[in-house]
Structure formats: C-alpha cells, structure tokens
Amino acid sequence: MTTGFIDKAALAELAASFGVSLDETALDRFDLYAKLLCDWNEKINLTAITDPGEIVVKHFADSLSVLGAVSVKEGASLIDVGTGAGFPGLALKIARPDLRVTLLDSTKKKLLVLEDIAQKLDLSVVLLHKRAEEAGRAPLLREQFDLATARAVANLRELAEYCLPFVRVGGRFLAMKSAKTEAELDEAKAAVRLLGGKTATVHTVSLPEAGERTVIEIEKRSTTPAAYPRPAAKIARFPLK
Ligand code: SAM
User: Fold this and answer.
1) Pocket of ligand 1 (CB under 6 A)
2) Sign of torsion, CA 76 22 81 140?
3) Is residue 108 pLDDT above 90, yes or no?
4) For the whole model, what pTM was predicted?
C-alpha cells in the first residue's frame, strides 16, 4: 500500500547511489514508515526531522549508507544499539529483509512505537527494552551478532564499550558518525583494542544537502574481557584509555 507520503523515486535513486536496490515492496514500506513516524511523533518525541524530503535523506538514505560502505552477507545477524525510532536498524531491515535484526533501546515507549511500526510494515524484528551495558553481559546476547550498529548514541570511546561485547569474533561494529571523526577515533583506539576490536576502515559517504558522514568499521579480533561492559556511570565517568 502506498500513502504517497515520500518521494519514492528520490529514495530509490539515493539508495542506488550506495549500490542498494530497493524494490516496490521496500519503497512502499519506507513510505508507510515515514507516515507512521510522523503520526507517532505528534504523540511522543521521536525525531526533530518531520519533512518527508528530509526523512528520506537524513533518516532513510543515511541509514542505508551503511550498506554502501560495507558488504553484509545474506542472513547476517545485526543488533542496532540505541535504535530510537529505528535508525539505522529498521531501515536496514526494510532494504534487506534477509537480515536478522534486533533493535535495542533503553526507552520503553520508543520500543512500543517500533513494535507498532514493524507490525504494520509486516516485518519480523526482535525488540529489546534494555540498557546496552546490561544486555551486553547477558549470555544469550553476548558475542552473538555478526554486526552491531549505532547512530547518535554516544562518543566512540563509550560506544565501543556498549557495542563490541555484542559482536562475535570475526564480526564487525559499525559506528555511524556525522562530523569529522579523526580526534574521536584517536581517543577511542585504546578502548577498542582492550575490548577486542581493531579499527579497520573509516568510510566516508556523502548525502545531498546533508554533507559528509562516516561509517567507522571496527573488526572484532578477540573476545571482550569479562569485566566489560561496566555499569553506565563508570563508562561515563571513567572512559577507557
Ligand atoms: N539511533 C537513533 C537515530 O540515530 O535516530 C536514535 C538516536 S537517539 C539520539 C539515542 C538513543 O539511544 C535514544 O533512543 C536512547 O534511549 C538510546 N540510548 C542511550 N543510551 C543507551 C543505553 N545505554 N542503552 C540503550 N539505549 C540507549
């Protein structure tokens, strides 16, 4: 069903520029997602971006840029940490329904919104209402995922402690960042190593009228020591060095 809310051709073109091909089912899902996001946003604060054209670029295309930056194998498992209104996790699930996607957030009402949206989009995702630093210690979640993604959740040093524990050895943590990342990356290097990761590549992607973004790809080389992740207060007060 199409609502005519977004310009589907514009989204298809942007996605294609990242090498992502969206079929009619995916485009209809994005269209309905944008409409539901705006409807829900009138009741609870989910996003400051409500113009359909901006949603296409700053939420949908930005999320899909991950697939332009790295190749993701068929059926991979992915956890989106601090998913909020589903970015990038739910957008990736629309583009790639083969992915096994878990959406994690510490805010219950956001997950209730995502439950409604995923059900209306007829997509199967796992919804987890948990804090990342607690979930990362749970045996059923720890080192279980091929990929962990996060956008706009914390600085890289803290984010690595939230995300790397979820990634299996051989998997990858993908941090989406908007601004210049060199200083942040430098500051996070020791933490990434300590948590079992190795910075592989910084991918730059360009979004029309939204500037440059980066996807920082971190490989998981060894298991995360049992001491991590620490409680949130410790992560914030004593970031890993
Ligand atoms: N990733 C989404 C996006 O880019 O639109 C949402 C970004 S929003 C600024 C940050 C989200 O991270 C919020 O929904 C918040 O509840 C969640 N969050 C922050 N710290 C968290 C933690 N320790 N564990 C789980 N979720 C967390």
Assistant:
1) 82-85, 87, 104-107, 110, 131-133, 151-153, 162, 232
2) negative
3) yes
4) 0.97
* Residue of 81, 141, 153, 166 to test ligand 1 pocket, by largest number of atoms within 8 Å of CB: 153
Rounded distance, CA 172 to CA 10, Å? 30
Q: At what angle do helices 8-17 and 62-69 cross, to 10 degrees?
A: 30
Lowest mean pLDDT among 108-122, 125-139, 172-186: 172-186
Choices 3.30.505.50, 3.40.50.410, 3.40.50.150, 3.10.20.30: CATH for 73-237? 3.40.50.150
Percentage of residues in the chain having pLDDT higher than 90 = 90
The pLDDT confidence band at residue 82, using thresholds 50, 70 and 90, is: very high
Classify strands 100-105 and 77-81 as parallel, antiparallel or unpaired.
Answer: parallel
Distances (CA, A) of 90 to 57, 85, 95, 144: 15, 8, 9, 19
167, 173 Cβ separation under 8 angstroms: yes
